[in-house]
Write a structure and sequence with these properties.
Layout (H helix, E strand, L loop, with lengths): L13 E10 L2 E11 L4 E5 L6 H9 L6 E6 L2 E2 L5 H6 L2 E3 L12 H15 L7 H13 L1 H12 L14 H13 L5 E5 L7 H16 L3 E6 L2 H4 L5 E6 L2 E6 L1 H6 L1 H6 L5
Parallel strand pairs: 3-8, 3-9, 6-7, 7-8
Antiparallel strand pairs: 1-2, 1-4, 4-5, 9-10
Amino acid sequence: MRGADPEPAESAELRADGLTVRFGAVTAVDAVDLVAHPGEVTGLVGAPGAGKTALSDALTGLLRPAAGTVRLAGADVTAAPPRARARRGLARTFAEPAPFGSLTVRDNVRAAVEIHARTRPVAGRGPADRRARRRALRRAAAATADALLDRAGIAAWAGVRAAAVPADAARLLDIARALATRPRVLLLDDPSAGLPAAGARALEVLLRDLAADGLAVVLADRELERVLGVCDTLYVLDRGRVVAAGPPARVRADPAARAALAMPG
């Protein structure tokens, strides 16, 4: 990122091995193996009920898996709570954005920047130096927030209360808030839903730019066609299992993927 943007965080890989999530007798995620590499966009695609949300929850710490492991930058975070994973650089957006509705769009992002400045590990020669660096980060929060809004394409909404912006701007605000934490891995849940065609194309450009910065971007979506043009690798889920994985063109032609997504032919 340039100018007042936060410096790019160190790259990290997100990996799941044999990840299984159960709700009583129901297996929602069944022995899933997945790798999201830095500098790439990895897609999770499946019809409603395929297990995308349960898998995302297990990756981010909202659900404790019954079996398997989650690793972030090589560290086993399977038992770590969401806050600990966030401190290690894992950020997530949700299918239903939940900004602070009474705050402006700018203040929503500024608050995220300031919270991260207070809680992130900061290098320094000693406690006093680290405190000074945190204060400097907080002072720069407004400029950083404006840079993130510009990057997300919603600078025009900066002074508007978040509760009053349209759904597409709210989704992009969610992404800007996530970027305020300087993530190494960014997991997005159905971010293009409700976006007009121009907005969806702009989102694709943003995600490719983020991957070029070294982020591992994980994109969950119910529609294969929406992610074909942006993903480097796709995983198709059906009834909690990965039924197809690989480059988008190969996955699109895979009979198991086509059947799982009810694609014609």
